Amino acid sequence: MLDKPARMLRLHDEDNIVVATEKADPGASVAAGVTAKQRIPFGHKVAVVPIAQGEPVRKFGQIIGFASQPIEPGDWVHVHNCDMGPEHGAFSRDYQIAQGARPENILPIEEQATFQGFRRANGKAGTRNYVGILTSVNCSTTVAGFIAKEIERSGILNDYPNIDGIVALKQANGCVIDYRGVIFDTLKKTTWGYATNPNMGGVVMVGLGCEGFQIPRFKEAYGVQESDTFRTMTIQEVGGTRKTVDAGVEAVKAMLPAVNAVKRETLPASELVLALQCGGSDGYSGITANPALGLAADMLVRNGGTAILSETPEIYGAEHLLTRRARDKEVGEKLIEIIHWWEDYAARNNMEMNNNPSPGNKLGGLTTILEKSLGAAAKGGSTTMNAVYHYADPVTEKGFVFMDTPGYDPVAATGQVAGGANILAFTTGRGSAYGCKPTPSIKLATNTPMYERMVDDMDINCGDVLDGVTLQEKGEEIFKEILAVASGKKSKSEQLGYGDNEFVPWQIGATM
Question: What is the pLDDT of residues 98-114, one digit of tens each?
Answer without folding.
Answer: 999 999 999 999 999 99
